[in-house]
Each structure stands twice: as C-alpha cells, then as structure tokens.
Amino acid sequence: MTGKMWQVHEQVKKEIAQNSDYKPNSLEFIEENQSETQNLIQEATKLYQNGKFGECAKVFRQLARTTKDLEHKCETKGKYVDRNSLNDLTGKEWLRHTKSWLVVDGKPSDIVYDIKNHPASFPPALANHFIEYFTKKEEWVLDPFMGIGSVLKSARDLERNCWGIELNKNYQEFALNRVKSNGSLKLDVVHGDARDAVSFWKKKKYPAVNFVITSPPYWNMLSKSRGGVKSALKQRVESGLDEKYSELPNDLGNISDLNQYLDDLYSVFAEMKRVLAVDAYVVVVLQNIRKKDGEMEPIAWRFAEKMKKSYKLKQEFIWCQDQKFMGIWGYPKTYVSNVHHHYCLVFQNN
User: Fold this and answer.
1) 199 belongs to a structural domain
2) Judgement on whether residues 252 and 303 belong to the same structural domain of the protein
3) pLDDT digits 0-9 by tens, 249-267
C-alpha cells in the first residue's frame, strides 16, 4: 500500500475505534475490505489516465457499491427493538432491505476456479441480503439446490444454521469444503435430490426451517445456444468448464418440456412445506427465458402463479448485475436484450 493510502487507512481505524456509532467488529470489516478497495482505486486511476472513461466509470460504480456495503457493515443505524420477531435489524437497517431491487456482482475474491466450474452460481452477498432480513441469528436456513454453497457460506458468516441438498456430488463436496463449522452452528449439505427434502430432514432430525433461499435450474437454458457472437456459455466450454449442472436424468435442468419442468419444480416446494416453520418465508431466484426462436417464456411468472396454490406470493425483488458479459445479440436486424436481471420471488408459508 502506498504511504498515502496507509495514512488514510490508519486514520479511518483511529476514528472507528473512538466512535461509539460503529459496531465492535468494524475494524475486522475494514481490514477485510482494505485490499479490494485499494485495487479498485488503482484500477480506476489507471483507466482514467489512459482515457478509458467508460471502463473507469464502471470500476467507480463497483467501488461505490463496495464502500456503501462497508458502511452498512460498520455503522450502527438506529436501535433494535425487542418486538422485532423477524430479524435482528434496527428500523433503519430494515428499511434498507425493503427496496425492491438491488445490484449485486460477485467479487473477484469470491470466484476461485472450483466456483467458476459451476455454470450458474450466485454471489454470497445476494444471499446475505435476504438471510439477514428473513432470519435471526442461529435460526435455520435451507437451500434445496445448494450448488457450490453460496447460501451455506452466507449463513455461516451471518451466524445462522444451514443445511442444503445438492444433486451433483462434486458441487456437494465443494460446498462442504467451502465452509468450516463456526462454534455451535450446524452447516451441512446432503448429496441427493431436492424432491427428497422431507426424508433428509427427518433422517437428520433437524428443527423446522425458518427460511428457504435457493436458485433452481432455470429450466434447460444452459443447453440452449443463442448463436451469433461467442456467448459466455461457449467461452466456458472452450475453457474446459462445466456447460450444465449434470447429465443426471433427475436433474431439473435436463427437462426439455417446460410444463413438466414447472410441475416438477413446484412439487419440490409443495412437499417442502412439511419442513417449514409457521409463516416461514421462501425466496426463489428465477429468470424469464428467451428461446432460440426469439419468443420469451415467462418462467418466473408462471412459477409464481403455480406457487400460489401452496404459498402466499408476497413480493418480488429484482436482482440486477452490472458486470456481466455483454453480447451484441440480434444485430443488425432484430431486438434481443442482454438480460442482466433475475426475479427473487418472495413467498410465505401458510
């Protein structure tokens, strides 16, 4: 770190140590954030000096989000009241979580090679946003499509118990290796099918689940080629990374018929009601899909309508990505958008 950066960093630590408005573990957050902040500043400065203003602005947006997240981690905002039965947030912290959209991109430090090998992982920061809103410390979180463990990592960091299910043995093993037990917390990933969630729950003798967050396969979109310019999917294949979740016949991502996919996905959550606490919330991350013929299939909306048979549909959050690959789809004849948003559908057990 340059001398100037070091002086600023030390001054920040001094101010925090003397200020009662900051949380006791704020210095830890500052130390963790130090290297990433420095790298972003240096990258933005270099891009600006080279006249790459568009790329520079993109880095500054990322820096702004990183710094804003650090503020929320460090500062005590408002006072917690005992009558809060949903989470451990103050009123001001609660307010931040009720905005209906959020921009989250994975940090470079989150993406080791094993995670890159998963074709559709989401950043722990996304799980953080919902877990800290819909649970209290030491409550139970479930991810029935665990993948490589983003939810597991988030739950550990936020001091929640968590278990999940993952069909792909390689991903299940990586998810378990990604986290270490934190004191009395229970962190587990079962190798198996999400359709068997109730059986696993009974066998493990876990208590009722307080919150479910998951991102199931978006139908069989990973097997669909868009043609045209080289897509991120094609680049993955050329790099030797996984193109799809698995070749297993019971993988929901391998179902070709959309109606069958929606029926099977709904059946997972309909059966899962048996493991949920009363009034527990469920967040399902999905995306509407554009087929190769140019027609959009509103998968998220159709799934939400099905879920209303068993759950209350409470709301939708929009998860936006700002750092995702951009392809010049459809040029120069037809409209095809770069889809950089997902629907985080919020349901409640009833």
Assistant:
1) yes
2) yes
3) 889 999 999 999 999 999 9
